[in-house]
Amino acid sequence: MRYLMTTKATDNAAAPDEKLFAEMGAFVEELTASGVLLATGGLAPFGVRLTSSGGEITVTDGPFTEAKEAVAGFALVEVRSEEEAVELARRFRRIVGDGESVIQQVFGP
């Protein structure tokens, strides 16, 4: 099963230190070597939102109303179960500290 794991931006203004980079690098290497990690990346805090209603398409700045709602990064993983995805997300949160992550199953080929 594939899961998209996203993490929201935080108000934490402190720059990442060398320990964080080392721990995250080791985590990414481990997941890549095991074939679990399919893709990862950071996302810009700005974008464009398109909504449609009654045949009208509206384009606005976005994608979120407030900056604190913005998704800062993602990882696409392939694991055997939701429980395994949750455990990977727990490991990620332990490395990066306080914040919020979301896990969603990805359907399709």
TrEMBL record:
Domain of life of the native organism: Bacteria
InterPro entries registered for this protein in UniProt: Dimeric_a/b-barrel (IPR011008), YCII (IPR005545)
Name of one Pfam family that matches: YCII
Domain YCII-related: from-to ranges: 1-92
Family label: Belongs to the YciI family.
Protein known as: YCII-related domain-containing protein
Native organism taxonomy: Bacteria, Bacillati, Actinomycetota, Actinomycetes, Kitasatosporales
